[in-house]
Every structure is written in structure tokens, then in C-alpha cells.
Amino acid sequence: MAVTFALAQLALVRPGMGLGWDETVYVSQISGHAPAAFFSAPRARGVSLLVAPIAAWSPSTPLLRVYLAVLSGIGLWLALRAWRGLLSPKVLALGGALFASLWVTLYYGPQAMPNYWVAIGALAGVGCFLRAQADRTRRAAVWGLAAAAALMALMRPMDAAWVGLPLLLASAVVRRWRYLWLSLALAAGLAAGAAAWVIEAYTGYGGLGQRLHDASLIQGGLSWNFAVDDQMRSQSGRTLCRPCTGAIPNPVMFAWWFVFSMLAAVGLALAVRARRAVGATALPLACAAAAAFPYLFLIGYAAPRFLLPAYALLAIPVAYGLVSLVRAIPSGAWRVSAVTLAAVILAGHLVVQSSVLHQTVDRATEGHRDWARTAAALNRAGVRPPCVLTGDEAIAPHIPIAFSAACSSADTDGHNGNTTAAALAREAGRIPVAMLTTRTTTPPPSFARGWRLIHVHRHVYAYVGPAVRRLGRAGNA
Question: 180, 190, 380, 427: which has the fewest Cβ within 10 Å?
Fold first, then answer.
């Protein structure tokens, strides 16, 4: 199943798709292709470390995609191995297949993004916790729990804290020495993974409290906010729904949401009734709810990838519920009918997921290629390294375009603010500086007044500083 998952990524998510916006930020921290982009407060360095074996020496995006697809398959296999002995191989294989078949899992598996790896760490961590609790002689499971916690915290510290909360609560409620050791292992893993993020908070963000405050502001301020409908809108393939407006998509696209939730509850009920695998269904369900809570009720926008840890954990009780329901049906025609019905439903699920994935990949591929064409046009126009790109991200995405053009990206305000207008004006007299825009009727900011306006590519224009010498086919607006 894990091998099929890796191969499906390579077949359905084209290795030549190009890097996305957030990916360029993570990859630029380690790549020699372009200067490092501004690293905002919520981000952690885990993804940059993950891609370092490839990005540190090769600018090839297809090679990076292949590497991440293979690595994601290995990660899923290892995470499911942590559950061996707790549930039957059929349940584990089905749970892994359900998670791997989601369009959002296939889409983000080969990407330089943290959410899939938080999901893998969550799945492995809960499995190791349960195995260590069931058998006191399994020291490997304790080490596995610490490693899984470190992986989550290295990728996204706050997500790791939410996932780990039910595990810590379980230890506090039971009050057994074995649970105490597991709590210490979990806490040690979380601390080890988050250490770099905390240290960086004091060296570059004004302290831990300030970094948490800045991270909250970037996410729109964490407070009570019902975002379930936003997540439903994003299931149509909107990788970032901010602001999340528009009509709710066809219910077929998000019906699996409610089916998953129902089957997970059924799995837990059947486990309680049979007095078997109660912990193996209840604990992942609790951790899934904790992982999903901040993204369903505390932020005012949505991205499907935010819920990947919840989906990975939910897949286990869902698979247990499905297998238990089929086994509960007497042998004969009724069981054949039930299996046939389940197969038809799963086939329909795969059709919906593949359709959304296909549309999402097509949109992303075209968008990334457009960024590359814009970057090439800027290079031909004289904006060549060493160079700087700036602009309003709501108008023109200068950060990924800057990475493609091998330029630095700069902002004078907003979440990615890393320079001043005066500094940009000084740089413009020394090296090529361009401000991207799509609004030719809007006056440029003060630092760009007097700069020449050129047409770059399609609907993108640029105000270029005095150090830029017009070359190639880029013409005046």
C-alpha cells in the first residue's frame, strides 16, 4: 500500500509541477539557487531540513518531488508499522489506504510542506504510545514515541502540542508509573523538536511570547471562530481559502467528511461493545479531534492541508469500523452484498478524490509555470541577480517569482516585512530592483516614484529601479 501511495504521487502529482509559494520559502532557506526568503513567525525549520539532502546541491524541482514522494511512502509505512500488534494487518492496510487516497494527502505528500509530516508523526506517535502502554518491555516503542513527537514539533510546534495534549491527559488521568514514563518521553520529544523554534524566537523575534503573538496575528488572531464551513469550501481544491467566501461546493466533494466521522464513531462503539481495541480507536479519535480543533474553531480561514493530522488519525478507527461491520454480517449472500456495496462506495470516493486532485494539480501547474515565465521575462528585462523583487502579495506574488528569478524578496510592511522604503530606494541605485504589480492605474509607493514601468508577462507589470537596463523583448507599458 505504501509503495502504491508513492507511485500514485509520481503519476498524479507531476514532478515538474514547480514549487508553490510556501515551498519556495522553505526551500530557499537551504538552496543556493536564490537568497533565503523572509521566514515569518509561525514557520519552523523542519521542512528545510527535510529537503536539504536534495535542495542543498540541486535546483531540480522534479528531483525534489521524486525524493519527497519516496520519503512520504516510507514515512507512511513506518507510521503504520508502529500499530502492528494493536490491530489486524487488514485494518491497518485499509486505514493507510483511506488516508493515502485523499486528494489532499496525495497532493501534499511530494511537496515541501510540513502538514503531511505532522500527520505521519501523529499516527506513529499514537501507535507507539499504545504499544508501549500495552507491553512494558517495549523500550523501542518509548523511543518511537519521543521520535514521533520530535518530528511533529520540528515541523509545526503548535500542531504537535495539540496532538500531544490527549496523550498527556491520558497519562494524568490514569496515574500509573508506565504512563508517567510515556509522558516524559512525549514531553522530551516535543521539547527536542521545538528547541530550535524556541531558540530562534529569542534570537530573531524578540522572545517566545512575541513570536507567539506575531504568529497569532499572521493567522488572523486566534479566537473563537466557526471555520467548519470554510473547510467545507476548501474541499473543492482551494489550497488556501482566505478570505473563504463563495458558495459551498457540491456535497459530493465533502460527503466523505461526514462518512469518516460517522464510521470513526461506529468503530469506537463496536470496540467498546466488544471490549477489544478500545484504546486503539478512542485515543486516535481524541487526538484527531484535538488536532482539528484550532483549525475548525480558532482561525478565520481554511486550508485543506491543516487537517491532514486529523485525517491520518481518523483513518484508524474508520478502518476498524468498516472491517467490524463487514465481519458482523453473517456469511453468505448478505456479506457478499455488504462487501459489494462498500466496494462501490469506496470506488465512488476514489473517483471524487481523483477528480479534485486532477483539477488542483492542473491549476497549480499552470500558476507555477506562469511564475516561472514572469521570472524569465524579468531576467530578460535586466532584473538579474543580484536583484530584489517587491510588491503587494495580494496583487502579484513576488516571493515565488523572486525565487524563480534568483532574486531576493522584500516587503516594507505586512506579515513578511523585512526592509524599509528607504533601504529599497538605496538598493535600487546599486542593483536591479523591481516592484511587481497588475494595476497600472495605481500610483507606485514613494520609493518607486520616478521608476520606469514595463510590461513583464501577461497581466504583470513592474516598476524597475534606475539600475535596471532594459534588455530583450520586455516593452514599455
Answer: 180
Buried b (16+ CB within 10 A) or exposed e, 233-254: bbbbbbbebeebeeeebeeebb
> Could you tell me the mean pLDDT of each successive run of 10 residues in the chain, 477 residues long?
96 93 96 93 96 96 97 98 94 96 97 98 96 82 96 97 93 69 92 97 95 89 88 92 86 89 93 89 96 94 96 96 86 81 88 96 95 95 94 82 95 86 93 91 87 91 86 42
What DSSP string runs through 392-455?
-TTT--HHHHHHHTT-EE--SSSTT--S-HHHHHHHHTTS-EEEEES-TTSPPPGGGTTPEEEE
Q: Enumerate the H helices of 156-234 as residue ranges.
A: 157-174, 177-204, 208-218, 228-234
Q: Cα–Cα distance between 107 and 358 in angstroms, integer?
A: 9
Nearest to 408 by CA among 147, 25, 41: 25
| CA dihedral of residues 231, 234, 239, 244 (deg, nearest 10) | -80
State the Cα–Cα distance between residues 401 and 34, nearest whole angstrom. 11
What whole-number distance in Å separates Cα of residue 234 and Cα of residue 154? 26
Q: Report the b/e string of 437-452 with b at 16+ CB within 10 A.
A: beeeeeeebebbeebe
Report how far apart the first and last C-alpha atoms of the chain are (Å, whole number): 54
CA gap 166, 122 in Å, rounded: 12
For residue 388, list its beta bridge partners: 408, 433
The predicted pLDDT at position 475 comes to: 44
Query: What span, in angstroms and rounded, lies between the C-alpha atoms of 37 and 27?
Result: 9
Among 288, 294, 295, residue whose Cα is nearest residue 267: 288
Eight-class DSSP state of 84: B
Distances (CA, A) of 245 to 113, 232, 237, 240, 306: 25, 11, 14, 11, 18
3 state SS of 216: helix
